[in-house]
Amino acid sequence: MKKKGCLILFLVICVTGMIGCQKELPGKQKVVWNVTCPAGFEMMTAEETFKNYEEKLNVILDEKKVGYEVEIEPIAAETGKNEVDILKEKKSQGKQADVITILGGLINTEAPEQNVELYKECAENQILSSLDELLESDAGEELKKVIPKEDLENARINGKTYGISAVFPMIDATVYSKDTLQEIGIDPKKLSADIFENEQMFREVKEKTGFAPYQVRGTSIYTKGKYWINSSCPVLGYREDTGFINLLDTKEYREYMRKMWQWKQEGLLKILGFETTNNEKCIVTDEYAMENYRMERYEVKAENNGKEETLYVVPNIEQDNVDPYWGDNKSGIASWSKNRQYAEDFLVRLFTDEEIANLIQFGERGTDYSLDEEGKAIVKQQSNIITRYFGYQYTNPMITYSTPTMSEDKLAYAKEYHEKYEGNLPRGFRMDVRPIAEEVKKVNQIYDAVITSEEEKNQTLEWKLYTLNVENTDQAIDEIVSKVDDAGMGKIVEETNRQLKEWQEKNGQ
Question: What's the predicted TM-score (pTM) here?
Fold first, then answer.
């Protein structure tokens, strides 16, 4: 189950008003910003947090003399009602709403029938109005300068754009302990981006030191193939040359599993938590896992067990899976807004003003984050959880400060990423899981991408394969593929490809 953050939403709100067109607007008006909250976020806490940022936002708006102030109204799902239902009620009751920020909502792999594509539902239920006219205006040209065209294409629903967002795409990376590499005499510059091409070096490390150089929590179906992974059914993936397929039955997955199993047998790899002890030495481990947004190699400082360590990050530039929507959060204009001019001004500022975007993504400088000697943002651990984990979803991360793990030129990085990895994705296509919810639920019960059941650990074949505790990976995969096929994987693949074909015909693709 994945949760998409909403905490940052409050941040976005407070800052949004500062950005946008530079012209002053006549009069002093009120813009109501409805923001949806993530699942599990208490409304009382949300309202208190939003109120705090609302005050700061309005101070900024007043300094910019925009002619309006912002009132933030958080929205959270209730028993028997999702966010779309609540927004429908607001519309039918004529309650003021001007700008709306929609989060991706809850992705429940255990109960996929509960999953709702909030942005798509808001567009198709006339909650959000079209932004096409705005995007063709001078203000729209400013937006297009700082939002990748691929993200604007992804936002189209039935040929129209109802919301905007910018996705700062992440690249898989292998993170090595530079300190340990130097200790045993390995030049990090000689490491290959493909970890399996470092096999000879790993063997030398094993012979020289006796320890397994590689530590992992478990295997992954996300490691090879450049597939677009479906969030509701994580073993369902798309690639242009294959369409939607079962990832468990791909050549890439089988080859990866054979190699990982071989390394485990030869002592080059150990499973964290099962075969390792605390602080057991290695040169690369999942414990170093971090979000990487750079294609070039680099070093970064990190704290490990109370002491600072230098890590050497090698982006895995030749094999990356994609998530083009990344939660599908969107900001748009309420279809019943009577303040269209002010709402558009506020929306544009949210995505084009660096000062506001930095506040939304990182919080207050000095309190929530600082800048290092290179001008990189260092987020403080005691900062608000919203800014720390979710801030980027409510603004434009393309124009904010970079952190040490981010490319300096974010727009150039995103452009290269889209060209290198995403190819000709069916941009704008969103699977409707409802016709196959029962089959998806059964398949996910057999093999979810992240196996978390404590009761089943070391008992099920799926968990044994995940931790490489099997005699033959191909035989284990065959058994699991047979089980998911019996659960309805074939119907899932068939229905998703049918939906894709129908969407392509409707949209002329």
Answer: 0.86
